[in-house]
Specification:
The complex is a heterodimer of chains A (280) and B (274). Chain A is mostly helical. Helix content of chain A is 82%, strand content 0%. Chain B is an all-alpha fold and 274 residues long. Chain B folds into two domains: 1-37, no CATH class; 48-273, MetI-like (MetI-like fold, Orthogonal Bundle), CATH 1.10.3720.10. Chain B is built from twelve helices and no strands. The longest helix of chain B has 36 residues, at 2-37. Classes of the chains: A mainly alpha (280), B mainly alpha (274). At the A-B interface, helix 1, helix 2, helix 3, helix 4 and helix 5 of A face helix 1, helix 3, helix 4, helix 5 and helix 7 of B.
């Protein structure tokens, strides 16, 4: 294909946009390993700042993992059955219920968090514990799990599969366990990655819900940006990016095999799973 | 009988999710409603976003920033997304990967990226100081917030544009080409109309996210007067709990309405992605 000026103009534009996004990331990586940012890389490379982050904020990393994994377990237990119920409830009722279920995504985290504080703030033990943060994260991430699973289930002819299983004598729970869940696995996988990614990065809710003893990674990040030197904030950001990027790669990988192996209908529906991650 | 038992089991499957939603979302929203109306201004607290000049100004600048962010992001990501979709060249997948890397960055991290670019020790400051002798620093203001939200939204919209461009019927484009349409005519008359539902949906998400976001503004400067920051200040610093509750409900209603509206306009096709 012949490439005109238009091609190169668009390429140049895309490269500009790309550098807007990537240059600060590279700066952060550089600053995180530079002895003194003001004097540049000439001042020498060091792991000192990573070490300081570990000492100052190590606990936030583990707390974020704990919250994210607990959140994943809960959204799996709550979301997968709920998605199947929504699939079966067609019509106005099903749509209304679905609309209600996805509302926590449409309402800003700040509002949900204020509501949680007003409703449960007086229960001291709950308010002080990391479970308070978990409650917010579960409500916020549940819609993503439900949607990812629902999209995959809706893209196949599940009813025919279930009818054949039923005609062979499989009961409700047996069908759920041997037909529905195995067929939903690509949605479950995509939903799981989305939930973990969102939970690890969640700030809007968490900033209001945390206490000095229950800081998560993004809360610690905000703290370091406000009160630590640039090098420490940068090193901490590098740690965060190193945690989140594998999840993101996994998410795209999880959405991909579906596209290759199933027909167009399913391929079209794999994008909501990707779009779910896009929401964050 | 069998149908009834089946319905009962389905309800059973849904009850746990419904209970959690009720306890940790609906009851909190109810508390906001009650507390918002229970302050010294009563139900008038809900009108204060319009009657109080400070809140109104905050609301208007939030809408202005969000609108500008949406327009800029749709234009930028539309051009880049279509370019990546329509062209194959060496390095294309690397470019795509880099453009979507910031996808999972929370608002706080985006704020820090803007500080690195346009803050006091930022790259843009260094460059402008070297070129003109004057240091350009705009991170800690509405312009910085605008840059941050655009940064945040670009990867999302690029992905949406590319995904929905893939679903367009390639025959339509081939037909247009065989009829002698030029590339820009194909984009204007075939591709953009086909992408419209996706653009409307992702534009609505972009607008609603910018309206309700908190992390970026929080990182850049606490005195940027956008509605989420105003709510935060009223709640934590000024202890105007009722006003904060009322304002956050109003904000939630606005973002929810925008997203619902976009879904109604574009139909069920994008329901899952909005």
């Amino acid at each position: 294909m012949r490439r005109g000026g238009l091609f190169y103009a668009q390429l140049a534009f895309s490269l500009c946009v790309c550098s807007f996004l990537i240059v600060p990331v590279l700066m952060s990586v550089t600053a995180g390993f530079t002895a003194n940012y003001l004097h540049g890389v000439r001042s020498g490379l060091t792991l000192r700042w990573i070490g300081e982050v570990w000492g100052l904020y190590g606990d936030t990393i583990f707390r974020s993992m704990l919250v994210a994994l607990s959140c994943l377990c809960l959204t799996l237990a709550l979301g997968v059955p709920a998605a199947y119920a929504l699939l079966r409830w067609k019509g106005r009722l099903g749509r209304a219920v679905e609309e209600l279920l996805v509302m926590p995504v449409a309402v800003p985290g700040l509002a949900t968090a204020l509501g949680l504080i007003l409703a449960y703030g007086r229960f001291g033990a709950f308010r002080q514990s990391w479970l308070f943060i978990l409650a917010g994260h579960v409500v916020f991430t549940l819609p993503f799990m439900v949607r990812a699973v629902l999209a995959v289930l809706a893209s196949m002819d599940l009813l025919a599969l279930e009818e054949s299983a039923a005609s062979l004598g499989a009961g409700f729970w047996q069908r759920l366990w041997t037909i529905v869940i195995p067929n939903a696995r690509s949605g479950i996988l995509a939903g799981s990655m989305t939930v973990v990614t969102l939970s690890i990065g969640e700030f809007n809710l968490t900033w209001m819900l945390h206490t000095p003893l229950t800081k998560t990674l993004p809360v610690g990040l905000a703290d370091s940006y406000a009160s630590m030197r640039l090098e420490i904030g940068s090193a901490y950001t590098v740690v965060f990016i190193a945690m989140i990027v594998p999840l993101l790669v996994g998410l795209q990988w999880a959405a991909h095999p579906l596209k290759e192996t199933t027909r167009q209908g399913a391929a079209a529906s794999s994008s909501p799973a990707a779009a779910a991650a896009v929401q964050a | 009988m069998a149908v009834r038992a089946e319905q009962l089991r389905l309800t059973l499957l849904f009850v746990p999710a419904a209970a959690v939603l009720c306890a940790f979302f609906l009851i909190p929203l109810g508390s906001l409603l009650v507390v918002g109306a229970g302050g010294e201004f009563g139900l008038g607290a809900y009108a204060m976003v319009l009657t109080n000049s400070r809140y109104l100004r905050s609301l208007l600048s939030t809408i202005m920033v969000s609108g500008a962010v949406t327009a800029a992001t749709l234009a930028i990501s539309g051009i880049v997304g279509l370019f990546l979709f329509r062209n194959r060249f060496p390095g294309r997948s690397l470019l795509t990967a880099m453009l979507t890397l910031p996808l999972a960055f929370p608002g706080v991290v985006v704020g820090f990226m803007i500080i690195l670019l346009a803050g006091r020790q930022g790259l843009i400051g260094e460059m402008t100081a070297a070129l003109t002798g004057e240091r350009l620093v705009f991170a800690y203001s509405l312009s910085g917030l605008f840059a941050g939200y655009v940064y945040f939204s670009i990867p999302r919209v690029i992905l949406t544009v590319m995904a929905s461009a893939e679903k367009l019927d390639p025959d339509l484009e081939a037909a247009a080409r065989s009829l002698g349409a030029r590339p820009w005519q194909i984009v204007r008359d075939v591709i953009l109309p086909g992408l419209r539902p996706a653009l409307v949906a992702s534009g609505a998400i972009c607008f609603a996210t910018s309206m309700g976001a908190f992390g970026t503004a929080f990182t850049l400067a606490t005195n940027i007067e956008v509605l989420p920051m105003t709510i935060y200040t009223e709640f934590t610093l000024n202890a105007h709990i009722a006003v904060a509750a009322a304002l956050s409900l109003v904000l939630g209603a606005i973002t929810w309405l925008i997203l619902s509206l976009a879904r109604t306009v574009t139909g069920a096709a994008v329901a899952a992605s909005a």
